[in-house]
Design a protein that fits this description.
The complex is a heterodimer of chains A (140) and B (428). In chain A, the strands form two sheets. Chain A has a four-stranded antiparallel beta sheet, with helices on one face. A two-stranded antiparallel ribbon of chain A has the order 3-4. Chain A has three helices and six strands; from the N terminus they run βαββββαβα. Chain A has one domain: Dimeric alpha+beta barrel (Alpha-Beta Plaits). Chain A is an alpha+beta fold and 140 residues long. The C terminus of chain B is likely disordered. The radius of gyration of chain B is 26 Å and the shape is elongated. In chain B, 70% of the residues lie in helices and 0% in strands. Classes of the chains: A alpha+beta (140), B mainly alpha (428).
């Protein structure tokens, strides 16, 4: 089963567009990433720019409204993620516990839906979506 | 939602390999190393539910294992040196031993893990013993889990592991990384064990067989571990590529009623394209290392041809034939030749495919193999020679024990016109 481990650094919701982690923090993180890789569980990972460089698109009656970051109402934002493949929820939690996080950071662990987890009618409805996602991936 | 036993199991799964590898560096016997690590696990199972999970569970297990290892090594040295040794010399050795153990456990190095893998897959062991030891020592599975995955009683599996450990101990297999030609041979043995585990899971057919299907993930995890440990070995990347590309089709291999769906009939929108990308990256890596003509890399390249085709019709069969030719050069086998004949039939037409099959019937390996008449029947059907085709497919049905295969063949029989294309009665 696959899990996404999302990093939620407190304060990142207000971080300046050019905010970058310290060299020391990055070095520690690299070591952790390497341990995931060596254990054969790491599938993907990425770090995200602060929300001040992003945008939120909200929807009302089919109309999309764009708000540029930072977002005053946001209390928790995602700073990055890992996708890991493990045998159980507990194993995902154990890996998260080993991450080199500081006091004001949170990791949220969430299982990734596999197509087989959905009921048949949902799977059928999702077929077209898979096509699109795959076409996009194949172009890369 | 998390109960403490599942948590302990998870900690074990993450830490056990390095723990066993560290102890083995000093004990030089992986059977003993595993037993000592197991004792630490038992201690955790007894104490953690009472006292709570320690803050650093890995360090806790290390300490517990170290204590037991020192006890064990003292006892065994004492037996060895009962005669002749003076007490002072004995004390000195004891001290050196605990220092070595401290050092080994404080800093388990990748080489220790690699040595452990090589030993678990040692050619001195029966293949089923290699598989069981690898899942136990490297994947951290319990005996019960392995037994369920291989559909054998737990007791049988326990004996299999016990026998394997005894064989290693009796053969005095050294705890070291092989070199030169020996390295190549041993890497091959490791890769074949990993691929065997993968195929065991890949052939699992239904939801109830979840434990078996999970073996695919275990094999992929082993593959990803191995590319980190054996960076320069192209076939390791080739095998990982092959497994990723095959596993990417998992969701498409079963129909809504659980029936098998063959590659060319699969709904390709169900393939996992992120996994295909990982497979392609691993294949490129193998090729960059100069290993494009390796056994696994070639098989992966064939799988990649299928992955690149967005419909079955777009498959580059000409290229697949060439890849099979290359595969036949390095590992001639009737099974590969049979697969090549299928590709020839697709690339150059059924008559050419049939010609490529000629001569294969004499191969004793294929004597009882249902795929030979099945493929021949398919090619004959495409040529409109229905009477002969029916005969071949009926023969194939009697040759396979697999119910799903039988169903597929029956289905094909039903779809076939009962008369020859020439309009003559075929008498069946």
């Amino acid at each position: 089963m696959r899990f996404m481990m999302m990093v939620i650094p407190k304060g990142y919701e207000k971080a300046a567009p050019d905010a970058v982690p310290s060299a020391e923090a990055v070095a520690k993180m690299m070591e952790y990433n390497k341990s995931l890789q060596k254990a054969g569980v790491l599938l993907a990972l990425d770090g995200l720019f602060p929300p001040s460089t992003g945008a939120r698109i909200s929807y009302s009656d089919g109309k999309a409204t764009v708000t540029d970051g930072p977002f005053a109402e946001a209390k928790e934002v995602i700073g990055g993620y890992w996708i890991i493949q493990v045998r159980s929820r507990e194993e995902a939690i154990e890996w998260a516990k080993r991450a080199p996080m500081s006091n004001n950071e949170i990791i949220e662990v969430r299982q990734i839906h596999e197509m087989g987890d959905f009921p048949e009618d949902v799977q059928k409805a999702a077929e077209g979506f898979e096509d699109l996602a795959n076409a996009a991936a194949a172009k890369q | 939602m998390s109960d403490i036993h599942s948590t302990i199991e998870a900690v074990w799964r993450i830490e056990s390999t390095r723990l066993i590898a560290g102890i083995a560096r000093v004990s030089r016997d992986i059977g003993i190393a595993e037993e000592l690590a197991q004792e630490a696990l038992v201690a955790a199972l007894e104490q953690w539910p009472e006292e709570g999970i320690p803050e650093k569970p890995a360090a806790w297990l290390m300490t517990a294992a170290r204590r037991r290892a020192i006890d064990y090594l003292r006892r065994s040295r004492m037996l060895e040196q009962k005669h002749g040794e003076i007490a002072r010399e004995f004390e000195f050795q004891q001290q050196r031993l605990s220092q070595a153990l401290d050092q080994a456990l404080d800093q388990v190095i990748d080489d220790d893990v690699l040595r452990l893998i090589f030993i678990a897959c040692h050619p001195v062991l029966a293949v089923e013993g290699r598989v069981a030891l690898t899942l136990r020592l490297i994947c951290g599975l319990t005996t019960a889990e392995i037994a369920r995955a291989f559909l054998v009683p737990e007791k049988t599996l326990g004996q299999r592991i016990f026998r394997a450990k005894r064989t290693l101990s009796e053969a005095h297999v050294p705890f070291e990384t092989p070199r030169g030609d020996e390295l190549r041979r041993r890497v091959e043995s490791v890769l074949s064990v990993v691929y065997l585990i993968f195929n065991e899971g890949y052939t699992a057919t239904s939801g109830e067989e979840w434990m078996r299907a999970a073996l695919c993930d275990d094999a992929l995890r082993l593959g990803r571990m191995l590319v980190e440990l054996l960076l320069g070995e192209s076939e390791v990347h080739g095998l990982l590529a092959l497994m990723e590309l095959q596993a990417s089709r998992t969701a498409a291999r079963r129909g809504r009623k659980g029936e098998a769906v063959l590659l060319l009939a699969q709904d390709r929108s169900l393939w996992d394209y992120a996994q295909i990308q990982r497979g392609m990256a691993a294949l490129e890596h193998a090729q960059r290392l100069g290993g494009g003509a390796g056994n696994y890399a070639l098989q992966a390249a064939i799988a990649a041809c299928h992955a690149r085709a967005s419909t079955a019709e777009e498959t580059d069969w000409e290229r697949i034939v060439l890849l099979y030719d290359a595969l036949l050069q390095i590992s001639p086998s009737p099974i590969v030749a049979l697969n090549r004949a299928v590709a020839v039939g697709m690339a150059q037409g059924p008559a050419a495919g049939l010609a490529a099959l000629d001569g294969l019937a004499a191969e004793s390996v294929l004597a009882g193999y249902h795929m030979l008449p099945s493929v021949r029947g398919d090619l004959l059907m495409k040529l409109g020679r229905f009477a002969e085709a029916r005969e071949e497919i009926q023969r194939a049905i009697t040759m396979t024990q697999n119910r799903r295969e039988q169903e597929l063949l029956m289905e094909r029989l039903k779809q076939m016109p009962s008369c020859d294309a020439r309009g003559q009665l075929c008498g069946c």
